[in-house]
Amino acid sequence: MTGALQDVTILDLTQHIVGPYATKLFADFGADVIKIESPGGDPARRLGPFKGGDRSAEKSGTFFYFNTNKRSVVLDLRSASGRDAFWRLAATADVVVESFRPGVLDLLGIGWEEIHRRHPGLPLVSVSNFGQHSPYRDYKGSELVLYGFGGEMHSTGRLQREPVKMYGTAALVLSGSALSTAIMGALFAGRYQSVGQHVDFSIADSHLVGVDRRHATVMGVQYSGRKSLRAPAAPPQGMLAGLYRCKDGWIELAGGGARFRNAREFLGHPDWMEDPKWDNPAIQMDPEAIAEFTSHLEPWLAQRSKREVWERARAARFISGPLYTIDEVFDDPNFRDRGLWQSAETGPMGSFEFPGRPFLMSETPWAYRRPAPLLGEHTAEVMRAAGCDEDALRQVLADASKEGADG
Amino acid sequence: MADLPLHGVRVLDLGGVWAGTFSSLLLADLGAEVLKQENQFVWQPNTRGVPVAHLTKEMTQEGAGWINGLPNNDPGERPWNYHPMFVSLYRNKYSFTLDIRQPEGLEILGRLVAISDVVLENSAVGTMEKLGISYEWLCSHREDIIFLRAPGYGLSGDYMNARTMGAQLEGVMGHQLLRGYRDAGPGENSGIFAADYIAGAQIAFALMAAVWHRNNTGAGQFIEMAQAENASGMFAQAYMDFALNGQTGEALGNRSIYADDGEAPCGVYPCLSPGDPEDGLDRWIAISVTNDEEWLALRGQLGDPDWAMRPELETAAGRAAAQDLLDEKLSEWTAQFEDYELFHRLQAAGIAAAPVLEASRLLNDPHVQARNLFQDQELPDDIGVYKYPAPLFEFPESEGGIRRPPVAFGQDNEYVYKELLGVDEQEYQRLVDTGHIASTFADSVP
User: Fold this and answer.
1) Per the structure, how many domains does chain A have?
2) In this structure, is residue A281 part of a structural domain?
3) Are residues A277 and A209 in the same domain?
4) Which residue among A188, A211, A338 sits closest to B201, beta carbon to beta carbon?
5) What's A232's DSSP letter?
6) In sequence order, which residues have a C-beta less than 8 Å from that of residue A97 and are 6 or more positions away?
7) Measured between CB atoms, does A50 come within 8 Å of chain B?
8) Residue of chain B whose Cα is closest to the Cα of A124
9) Which residues 73-112 of A have a C-beta within 8 angstroms of B?
10) Quick one: pLDDT band at residue A56, thresholds 50, 70, 90?
11) Which among A6, A115, A181 is the top mutation candidate for probing chain B, defined by the most B β-carbons within 10 Å of its own β-carbon?
């Protein structure tokens, strides 16, 4: 079996997180993603975590994860040989994706109008912070800045403190997941309608109207005049409802409401629950009863691991989940047995595991075919396959390795 | 104009909550004909409202606007058609009702499967089984059907039957312990919904990949997404740090995970505020320095004060070690400015910065206006005209945008039954009488 997208060729001029995450999804499901890098390489190659903390080339965990299954071609797009190489590759591509600052592609002489003139059916997807047309078109962005502006950050955190973001680059990965649908749409338009479309994907917009609950806060305040604010404090624990400490960490339990009828089974039928008062649904609203219940629950939880408590919560059909640390996620037998982890080995990084398939396709499975490419690893191979003769290839390689060629 | 990219693809949407509902929104925006199946006797929480269908006026009078802020603070006749949490996820879709718990309902569903390309669902494991809906059953109605299921933890393993929302499975994947204030525990974290949205986007991606493959080969397929596993990309660096170096990570607040690579300072700092946080009038600016050059630019904006002239701050390592100081000094400085004034000033100096916007201010932002991201729409329930979100991106050669405003419950029953299934008027009336066809939830539903 082969990947669902095995007949797709993507010319990928994106870097950092958003574009590479989207094109990784394509590469992992079989597409030939040709990653065009400047001589200095994707800046993500210089982002940690590095194997052993060694910042030297080809040891970046960030770059590895976001670029599996791609091939790397280094071109100096400011040189004539680099541009010729780009056009040679564009003739073989189903879609071009780029994340230069708006306007840069035009300056390089490979902008939308020129692409469209040469290849009318070839789509281009441009990724940028605020879009190709915006008063903020030339503004810089970062994960924090774009999430703060576009995402639902203002209402996240505690009222008397600053708004607080999600982990790492989660907000950018969310944007990348949405970008994958834009690229897919562009591919369909190109393949089935022979219409090359220029899709203007703005990372800010993907949060403003998309991958976050921002649409809900905007509707809520328009409808009712009521804003959505950060909460002043954690919500008080209910009866079997809230975040609790176990012997080895935290677990969230939502065993209130109708599910509370399973509380005795969950707790192993303790004597103190024999009292029929616990059968009255109204008791779940009584603060004194909640305190009494919690005084029994907490020592019970303190003797048990979060895994054990979650197992009982699952049996009782409570909405629940432990807070795992990263090592616990790695060691977890459920995810291991299901095959989430993929082994990899590279010369510079040794052998290790990383999260593999995001989902399972019965006929066209996710497959790890090759590690993230070394910088320029596939320049010669890809250019030769595209019909580049040896003289022209020598010029491409020479221009791409020139001192100071990196923009 | 060209057709939208997914023109001609019909999606039978048995999904719900955020993930399924967002996935079919993306497909609908791309031109697929999304038929959203609903049932007047079944209230699926967090799909067209929360916690109940028939909200009382009392339930809508206070609390966060996004949770229960209804038009004019009145639930009206059919609050599920304009619930703020979900209404924006229903544009460009079709809604029909069918009681698939009845044998006849399942038979009718089979007839729809026969004329559909894709079926998706994201209920807890057991729901489809109870209804008798399986990939095999779908294939018996359409051999090349594409079926996607997206329960929290997939269709095998110890956690298969776990009841969960996106928020809990993020905790299981490690996110709760990796996010939030540096000096507070996970109990201080706000609920977030990122796992639901990445599931939604990647359900759409998976289905399009499967349609692409089917168009090439004629073969449909079955797709299983465990939403927990699907979320792993959002925490990739944490997993890689453990895989490569055995590090388990910790919450960093608003600081960059790349501080050692030059990305400091990185934070959210106070600006001049016209009022109190309790009124949503607190204002903040996000600032990210990503390299030495940008630090020098920011230092210049600060006026090159003595504390900032220490040469080690010109290095990534020096700034990473001085983040407490940088945050403290920046907070003092930013507090003198209006957020938009500082935003433009810092950006003009080449520094990434933006206001952290409270939602009511969005509609006045020049970027949001220039890109027409929120557009006036009138819904069928006569609640008035409001601005609703537009698609995330456009295909300029196609007639895209908001082709249909958020669809009301059962709005397209006539289209689905009469046009698609060829049901005559007499049969249509019978299906109304037997409960399949409705335009409101039954009174028996809470």
Assistant:
1) 2
2) yes
3) no
4) A211
5) S
6) A10, A11, A12, A13, A14, A19, A22, A23, A124, A125, A126, A127, A183
7) yes
8) B395
9) none
10) confident
11) A181
Closest Cα in chain A to B156 = A338
Task: Measure in Å the smallest separation between the Cα of B431 and chain A Cα atoms.
Answer: 33
Do A176 and A276 lie in a common domain? no
**Sign (positive or negative) of CA dihedral B290, B292, B297, B298:** positive
Choose one of A303, A330, A357: the last residue of a domain: A330
- Nearest residue, CB atoms, A221 vs list B69, B159, B168: B69
Rounded CA gap, B27 and B10, in Å? 10
Asked if residue A160 and residue A23 are part of one domain, the reply reads yes
Residue A57 has pLDDT above 80, yes or no: no
Q: Looking up tokens 């639930």, which residue turns up? A: B75
List of chain B residues whose C-beta atoms are within 8 Å of the C-beta of residue A162: 254, 267-270, 284
CB contact under 8 A, B222 and A362: yes
- Rounded to whole angstroms, the Cα distance separating B37 from B43 reads 12
Binned at pLDDT 50, 70 and 90, residue A403 comes out as low
Amino acid letter for position A231: A
How far off is chain A from B130, nearest CA to CA, in Å? 16
Element (H, E) at B288: strand B284-288
What are A314's two structure tokens? 């699952």
From CA B61, how far away is CA B363, in angstroms rounded? 24
In a 13 Å sphere around the CA of A147, the CA atoms on its Cβ side amount to 28
With an 8 Å Cβ cutoff, is B377 touching chain A? no
Contacts of A61 in chain B (CB under 8 A): 237, 240-241, 243-244
Candidates B89, B158, B359; nearest CB to A214: B359
Interface of B with A in 218-277 (CB under 8 A): 219-226, 228-230, 232-249, 251, 253-254, 256-258, 260-261, 263, 266-270, 277
Look up residue B59 and give its DSSP letter. Answer: G
**pLDDT tens digits along B332-364:** 999 999 999 999 999 999 999 999 999 999 999
Domain membership of residue A229 (yes or no) is: no
Q: Quick one: A300 and A387 in the same domain?
A: no
| Any domain includes A75 | yes
**Under a CB-based contact definition with an 8 Å cutoff, are residues B351 and B301 in contact?**
yes
Q: Do B284 and A162 touch (CB under 8 A)?
A: yes
Longest dimension (CA), chain B: 85
Task: Flag whether residue B168 sits within 8 Å of chain A, measured between CB atoms.
Answer: yes
Distances (CA, A) of A281 to A239, A318, A320: 11, 16, 20
Asked whether residue A406 carries a pLDDT value surpassing 60, the answer given is: no
Q: Are residues A87 and A150 in the same domain?
A: yes
Cβ neighbours for B64, distance < 8 A, ≥ 6 positions apart:
A155, A217, A220, A226, A227, A228, A229
Secondary element (H or E) of residue B345: helix B339-348
Nearest to B269, CA basis, from B345, B356, B347: B356
Q: Which domain holds residue A110?
A: 9-215+377-400
Task: Reply yes or no on whether the pLDDT at A407 is more than 70.
Answer: no
Contact A250 B236 (CB under 8 A): no
Query: Measured between CB atoms, does A224 come within 8 Å of chain B?
Result: yes
Dihedral sign (CA A115, A120, A123, A127): positive
C-alpha pair distances (Å), B419 with each of A324, B98, B99, B407, B413: 51, 16, 19, 18, 9
Query: Taking a C-beta distance cutoff of 8 angstroms, is the pair B272, B298 a contact?
Result: no
Share of residues in chain B with pLDDT > 70 (%): 100
Domains annotated for chain B, with CATH where assigned, are 10-233+368-433 (3.40.50.10540), 259-356 (3.30.1540.10)
Domain CATH number, residue A36: 3.40.50.10540
Q: Tell me the pLDDT tens digit for each residue of A319-344.
A: 999 999 999 999 999 999 999 999 99
> Which residues, 6 or more positions from B335, have their beta carbon under 8 angstroms from its beta carbon?
B269, B270, B271, B272
Q: Do residue A42 and residue A188 come from a single domain?
A: yes
